[in-house]
Amino acid sequence: MEIKAVILAAGKGTRFKSEKPKVLHDILGKPMIFYVKEAVSWINPQEIIFVVGHKKEEVIKTINCENCKFVEQKQQLGTGDAVKQTIPLWEDFDGYILIINGDNPLIKGQTLKDAVNYLNALIEYEGRNINEKNYKNREIAGLILTATLENPYGYGRIIKGQAGVVQKIVEEKDASFAERNIKEVNSGIYFVYAPYLKEALNKLQNKNAQKEYYLTDIVEILAQEGKKFYTFNVEDPTQIIGVNDRWQLAEAEKILKNQFMYFWAINGVTFHIPESIWIEFDANFGKDVEIFQGTAIKGNTEIDDGAVIYENCVIKNSKIGKNVKIYPNSVIEDSIIEDNAQVGPFARIRNSSVIGKNVSIGNFVEVKNSKIGENTAAKHLSYLGDAEIGKNVNIGAGTITCNYDGFNKHKTVIKDEAFIGSDTMLVAPITIGKHAYTGSGSVITKDVPDKALAVERAKLKIIENYAERKKRKNEKSC
Length: 478
Ligand code: UD1
Ligand code: CA
Description:
Layout: E1 3-9, E2 26-27, E3 30-31, H1 32-41, E4 48-52, H2 56-63, E5 68-72, H3 79-84, E6 96-101, H4 109-130, E7 140-148, E8 157-160, E9 166-170, H5 177-180, E10 184-193, H6 194-201, H7 217-223, E11 228-233, H8 246-266, E12 269-271, E13 278-279, E14 284-285, E15 289-291, E16 296-298, E17 302-303, E18 308-309, E19 314-316, E20 319-320, E21 325-326, E22 331-333, E23 336-337, E24 342-343, E25 348-350, E26 354-355, E27 360-368, E28 371-372, E29 377-385, E30 387-389, E31 394-395, E32 400-402, E33 412-414, E34 419-420, E35 425-427, E36 430-432, E37 437-438, E38 443-444, E39 453-454, H9 466-477
Parallel strand pairs: 1-4, 1-6, 4-5, 7-11, 12-15, 13-16, 14-17, 15-18, 16-19, 17-20, 18-21, 19-22, 20-23, 21-24, 22-25, 23-26, 24-27, 25-27, 26-28, 27-29, 28-30, 29-31, 30-33, 31-34, 32-35, 33-36, 34-37, 35-38, 37-39
Antiparallel strand pairs: 2-3, 6-10, 7-10, 8-9
Helix pairs in contact: 6-7
The protein binds uridine-diphosphate-N-acetylglucosamine (UD1) and calcium ion (CA).
The site of uridine-diphosphate-N-acetylglucosamine has 29 residues, from β1, α3 and β10.
């Protein structure tokens, strides 16, 4: 079956009370509209057409899709009016148009596939009755995806006639008391035979409670001509949730996060207190990974086999190697932590840093835009910025790379096996040679050759009996 898709994304999303278009609000690190497009791509439509309007430049930029088409709806006069704008793109198309609301992020691609198969089966079946070539799909106007909800409030209700054929869809605001009791609701996802769709769209009127051109009215228009809409009931009602306000956004996010976590848990990841953990769409996990409570895994992050991320960490756009341990309250962004390294507690790694194998980064250590070689240790209270540090280096407690002169950032190079004494200030640009030493408390302003010791300290003075002398002096002055 030939299919083209239309995704509705022109609305303001008034109920969001937001400057940002509704469909651009994020769910687990991706805009709502992204999930709709993902699901639609499962059925390989010939074309995906977005209807945009409110802040359209922002919406188009975010969707960022080369093969997609964008059609503008200048005034948001309703969902019917929105689809009408797309007619020029498919008016001679002899196939089905999938129409889907942009605020429907929980729909699964598999469900759309199942619906296409069902529609195909219906066409086959009806075709047998009609017994006329090329008439096969003419009588079936389309398929409406529906769900049965305990609380159908806010959704269009499905009014059915004989043999499960839909007569019309009634919006909440236009429904009679009896109609409001109907629990089968319109998902906002439909497959409609293109020539009939065009005909019905051109007949739409806005005589209803909201003075809008409702897409849903095409059902009644076509039903009156004897053209049939059937329903495809989506078993899992959460899939059809329409996100109209921020509380529904939170609900949708909760449901999706649970689905992601379930998937990873089944594939060998332990989540301790999953409700407290945040993971996003682009997070990937190996086997035997453990994530403790309060941790957030954000953006494009990969966590390899056997890694353990303890409590309250934030890891964003980073790669965490095999058997790495990230201790509590550490923040890692845009960086790579190689196999068997240890980080934290209370460490911060950022700006394209690479922490080598078996490295140990301890508490209150910040690493920025630096490469740290294998087996090196910086265990306490340090700032390592714009540094290239070799293998088997020891960075003493309190070491600071003084990388900024008020105008520019400068590089620090520390070669293999160097020993940086505690509280060393390394004033960059500077190179510390292989197996060189710096004395504790030194301010190092010149390069240190291999194997040398650099020490910069005032001579130590010991004043004997100082306390006694100070006391006497004090008594005298009283
Ligand atoms: C719509 C359906 C309702 C269904 C529900 C499912 C209609 C009239 N009603 O109601 O039967 O149960 O979805 O979630 O269709 N949009 C435009 N241009 C417009 C108006 C809306 O592009 O002029 C877009 C919105 O951006 C949104 C989508 O269409 O993505 C749906 O619009 P919305 O106002 O949320 O419709 P509902 O009231 O939820
Ligand atoms: Ca909606």
